[in-house]
């Protein structure tokens, strides 16, 4: 069964030339937590999603997989 993908954090980090470790440092978060977000094993809280968007200088919607095609 395919794993559901909810966020695009890993893709946006790659587009911005940033790493998981960089994001963990920016947010003062555990690297393991950020890694789980990037693998879609765990999802960040909504307020954290906004912090991620700010750190990456993107619209928060860019970090989410669209539900519409």
Explain what the structure shows.
It contains 4 helices and no strands. The model has no long low-confidence stretch (mean pLDDT 95). With 69 residues, it is mainly α. The two termini are 21 Å apart. The longest helix has 11 residues, at 46-56. Helix 2 crosses helix 3.
Short description:
The chain is mainly α and 69 residues long. The protein is built from 4 helices and no strands. Helix 2 packs across helix 3 (31-38).
SSE topology sketch:
Elements: H1 9-16, H2 20-27, H3 31-38, H4 46-56
Radius of gyration: 11 Å
**What's the overall average pLDDT, rounded?**
95
Give the helix tally: 4
Mind describing the biggest β-sheet?
none
Run of helices and strands: HHHH
Strand fraction band? under 5%
Which bin fits the share of residues in helices? Answer: 40-55%
For the record, give the distance between the C-alpha atoms at the N and C termini, rounded to a whole number: 21 Å
Q: What is the β-strand count?
A: 0
Q: Low-confidence parts, pLDDT < 50 over ≥5 residues?
A: none
The backbone outline, from C-alpha atoms, is globular
Kindly list the characteristics that best describe this protein:
about 70 residues; mainly alpha; about 50% helix
